[in-house]
Automatic annotation (TrEMBL):
This is Kinase-like protein. Residues 1-146 form the Protein kinase domain. Signal peptide: none annotated. The keyword Ligase does not apply. Coiled coil: none annotated. The keyword Acetylation does not apply. One of its GO terms (molecular function) is ATP binding. It comes from the Eukaryota.
């Protein structure tokens, strides 16, 4: 259980492949405990990406939470990436503020940012308030959004990338050319994040 999934904890290795890092808050179940059924209780992670079951003090102290908190955090990350948001969906400074923001916005707000039906179906399932209704990793991998992905190729780092030069991109207050690595697989290209070019 990672417990701190967010965009800042995804890195690109020297071959251009995305990897998840920073396992400082991760939790490993005790020996002979099934990963899917092993709860833990400590509140940790980053506000804006915490799962609802971590924000309910009564449920947290009584029942704890399981690995589906990572599914929620990854779902919120997907919304931020696929919706091209400039800040987290449930942007908050602490867990109390996040709880209030989530209660105010709900999940239907996602439809404002994501129009692709496969993307929308996937993220809505991943950020479901009820962890029992969230998909597990196998169900995510089999989702229609990933229908063109060969997971064996992903595992073996066989997808290739190409470098494309984009001219005159606005970065802060400076305008400059930049090199962007983009996977050649069409699903990655279709959903890649880009900055808006200057007119």
């Amino acid at each position: 259980m990672h417990r701190d999934i967010k965009p800042e904890n995804f890195f690109i290795d020297h071959n251009g492949h995305i990897v998840l890092g920073d396992f400082g808050l991760s939790h490993t179940p005790k020996p002979k405990k099934k990963f899917e059924k092993a709860p833990t209780y400590g509140l940790c992670g980053t506000s804006s990406y915490l799962a609802p079951e971590m924000l309910n003090d009564a449920l947290l102290s009584r029942h704890g939470y399981k690995y589906k908190v990572d599914i929620f955090s990854l779902g919120v990350t997907f919304v931020e990436v696929l919706g091209r948001l400039s800040e987290p969906l449930y942007c908050a400074m602490d867990q109390n503020q996040q709880r209030a923001v989530m209660n105010d916005l709900g999940v239907d707000i996602v439809k404002k940012f994501i129009k692709d039906p496969d993307q929308l179906d996937l993220v809505l399932k991943m950020i479901d308030e009820d962890p029992n209704r969230r998909p597990d990793t196998q169900e995510i991998m089999k989702h229609a959004f990933f229908k063109d992905i060969d997971w064996e190729m992903v595992y073996n780092h066989q997808y290739q990338r190409e470098s494309i030069l984009f001219e005159s991109y606005q970065i802060g207050l400076s305008t400059q050319s930049m090199m962007v690595d983009e996977y050649t697989h069409p699903r990655f290209r279709q959903n890649s994040i880009g900055m808006q070019s200057n007119p």
